[in-house]
Amino acid sequence: MRIGIDDTDSPAGMCTTYLGAVLIHRLTKAGIQVTGQSLIRLNPNVIYKTRGNAAICIDAEGDAEQAFRIASACIEELAEFDEEKTNPGLVVAENPFPVSFYRQAVTGFCTINEAEAVCHAAGARTRKWKNGRGIIGATAAVAAKQEDMTWELLAYRNPEDKGERMVERESLFRAEKETFPHTWDTVDIENDCIVCFPHTPDPVIFGIRGESPEWVIKAREYVRSQKPVMEVIYHTNQGTDAHLLEGEIGSLAEGCSYRLRGVVADIPETGRGGHVSFHLRDMSEEVRCMAYEPTKGFRDVIRGLAPGDGITICGSYKNGSINLEKIRIITCPEIVRQRPPLCPSCGKRMKSDGVNKGWKCRRCKTRAEEPEIIHESRTVSPGWYEVPPSARRHLVKPLCRGTPTE
Length: 406
Ligand code: ATP
Known about the structure:
Its main location: cytoplasm. Pfam families: TiaS_FLD, TiaS_TCKD, Zn_ribbon_TiaS. Keywords: ATP-binding, Cytoplasm, Ligase, Nucleotide-binding, tRNA processing. The protein folds into 4 domains: about 1-145, 2-Layer Sandwich (Alpha-Beta Plaits), CATH 3.30.70.2200; about 150-235, Glycinamide Ribonucleotide Synthetase, Chain A, domain 4 (Alpha-Beta Complex); about 245-335 and about 380-400, CATH 2.40.50.1010; about 340-375. The protein is an alpha+beta fold. It is about 20% helix and about 30% strand. The longest helix is centred in the first third of the chain and has 15 residues, at about 65-80. The protein contains 8 helices and 24 strands. The chain starts with a strand and ends in a 20-residue tail after the last strand. The radius of gyration is 27 Å and the shape is elongated. It has helices at about 15-30, 65-80, 100-105, 110-120, 135-145, 170-180, 215-220, 300-305; strands at about 1-5, 35-40, 55-60, 90-95, 125-130, 150-155, 185, 185-190, 195, 205-210, 230-235, 245, 255-265, 270, 275-280, 285-290, 310-320, 320-330, 335-340, 350, 360, 365-370, 370-375, 385. The protein binds adenosine-5'-triphosphate (ATP). Adenosine-5'-triphosphate binds near residues 16 and 43.
């Protein structure tokens, strides 16, 4: 059977992954054999999310009715019911769900009715609390299936402990140094900051993301921190680009994420707050692309673009703009500009000679036929570029895992 849970936390505490870890222990204690656990991220642009739009799926063998009772009790005990936006959902399924529902939930939007129809068709047990929106994520987590998956080891503290986390900074940098690129996003070396723990009052002490259980365990062994009350390794769709759709500029849907190809239409501009923007053109349509201030050095790559450069971009379409996650510069030819030549006689810059074509020196009347040609070297070169780990969204595939296929 598969057990899906979602929407149990609030900005003030709890985390659905923690509740999942507790549930794994309780199921095991009750004689239900847990065979796997997944942390499934869904559309990052869903407005109902608390933080990273995560849902949990536990694979288990045993009595489904008993598992349903244990999971219900666990949610009732631990979910943050006082928070208006917390609307838990539970699904226990003994038959497979269509993977299409997961694809819809990770790339687009779903309704509660659609989720319930999927559960009903497969004869699954379901339960909703409050407005029950969590049934969407719970159903999607049960339906989730894709070839490319990664792993995350999560270490938890007691949920009542809402103070500062005790993790030795140097040990995290060491973990990254010893295990990158097999693990990633533990720290952001370029910006000299820690990425692998939240600054919110939830039970996560730290999380290590990587290519296999072995690699996340190896990295974890370097980490020195307060003593976790629990640790769990989730199989996850994080770092896989599962949210990206192939798109065309003329038909982008609000809240969806795309990979788009086109040419740079104008000179990138740095606006208020340090956000950098330019327009991408494909055939006759244009869309604004944004590299926000938190993307730090990535903005220098964007500033280095020039009209006519051929690029591929990945990012979410929100409020009429693409929020850039990564970019491939395909062509960025040398910029060749012309300007009036210097007068060979007096050294003064010449002026256009109007109808006679060519240039003329106003001072000594010398004429010239050819302009001065300026070759501007570029600050960017072809290749993939990504936002730094500190600005990376959970689902985005880091370049250390390989570049997107085109
Ligand atoms: P955490 O991961 O820390 O538990 P969260 O950021 O995952 O919190 P939730 O509290 O789970 O956020 O809230 C997300 C809500 O949005 C859930 O009710 C979930 O069912 C719903 N949801 C998720 N994906 C979609 C989607 N594609 N369309 C509509 N609703 C969705």
